[in-house]
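Extended Data, panel c. Modelled sequence:
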Amino acid sequence: MLELLKTIHSPEDVKKLSVEELDVLAKDVRTFLIQSLSKTGGHLASNLGVVELTIALHYVFNSPKDKFVWDVGHQAYVHKILTGRRSGFKHLRQLDGMSGFPKRKESEHDVFETGHSSTSISAALGMAKARDLKGEDHQVVAIIGDGALTGGMAFEALNNAARAHSHLIVILNDNEMSISKNVGGIGRYLNKLRSSKDYLKVKEDVEDVLHKVPVVGEHMVRTIKKTKESVKSFVIENTLFEQLGFTYLGPVDGHDTQELIEILKNAKTMRGPILIHVKSKKGKGYALAEERPAEFHGVSPFCIRTGEGNSKSSGQSFSSAFGASVLNAADRNEKVVAITAAMPEGTGLRDFAKAYPRRFFDVGIAEEHALTFAAGMASEGYKPVVAIYSSFLQRAYDQILHDVCLQNLNVILGVDRAGLVGEDGPTHHGLYDIAFLGSMPNMTVLAPKMPEEMEAALEYALVHKGPIAIRYPRGTTSLGIEYKNNFEDLEFRSLKNGNNMAILAVGRMVETALKVSELLKEKGYEVAVIEAPCVCPVNKADIAKLAESYHYLFTLEDGIIQGGFGEKVFAQLALMEAKVKGKCFGHQSGIVPHGKVEALFEREHLDAGSITNELLTIFEKESE
């Protein structure tokens, strides 16, 4: 089984195969992906959809001399398999194992690291221009999906690429839009005609001859070009890329290896920016993923026969609690609207979309637009709730500051996946939101510590005057209902009493603080646990009370220390000239690897055991 795949250790092995053998290889790769990811989890549907395309790329081009830039990068599994990393799938996305995204340190074939969408064309154009400046002649290929093309940055790059006049190949992997049947055949025919070597040579020769004809030559060339463009506009539905300055090739069947090889070979011989439109099917080759591609986009370990996940989550997640709270708020207030950037399922807003389709707006992968769009609605009296993952919210920094905060508009941000998220790694961890949101004027940031608090947090946000964010992690916590906060005020709240020592914790880290308190109690130390339901602005009056009550104060947050909650607290203590000793516990750097969240907290020394040991060391030194 998978005998052909076992012979592939590098792209050179792919090049030795016949086209018929490449089709067998594609079947082997799909089987391997399904079997492997059913055990480890990962991005399944997107990778099943690019098997033939990736094989064709490595068959035609010469990686790593020729450079592939994978937009988002979660569809680079096949690329990893063909570049000698098949054995790494045993530990895919595990701590110290192979990443689920391109990583430069992992392989010379990963030439650019990606994780967020719409970046590939910009990076590839930069590489192409650097190649030209150095006088080199290799190929640069950007592979971008139709979803990522909704990001404005992609169009900024397309526009610049046309002006740069550098040879660049952009592959648009289109797995959703359809081309109508009546133009499909003609489109494929014209594509072959326009991209064939013979056609290009004849076209150039004819134009050269006509240019030399006195008086009428130039007119004839212009007439021929106008006629050509009219015919193309008539039979090719989308000429946007041509108008931007690209030579458009396609559409081509993304699962026809022979056709892909031909068009890629022809693209190599052409000049200037080229866009190849590839039609593919997400989840190709696995019926369950083809039927439900969204569900099989990113999977946990699952049963291949049924598609059901092996891991069962316990308790309500923060995301589902947030979605239910927004839906309940919409039932009560017709001014409540929900906005997301291509994440209705992930952010828990699917039920809202079904219940209130006219008040639900999925703007696609366009976070910048989402925030200014929300600001526009807020300026007209609506209550926009914008749900975006923390790491993707970074993309809209200017819009939050310029369009929301400076105008003090009541836009409610649902900052999902705040803190460590796990297997997707550093491009997806949400470690910066406290630091950058906390520096903005008029901004308030709430941090519920368990899903049961989400409704109260949202109710507060909807009546708040000005911009407000609710940050919450992936998954859930297991604090218990006894600790529930009603958010009637945003004062610090004591959960456990102590002597002269206190831990001031934020969000999910309250659970860790309570565990630390119990561990220290076993060692004879009574340490108070205090929660801060509002991350910013920091409550100066409450900080002053802490300075009066405790000699030691330790802050605990799931975010970077620099610019974070703890630094803001200790800055206020310094201004008060308070005689308080302590330390900020958080992430020293925003670069945290991929792996299980529990293992990552241990790696970052932010688990209960590590914090307890460090506090014991501090206490013991003080008692010497």
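The two ends are 66 Å apart (CA to CA). This feature is highlighted in the accompanying rendering.
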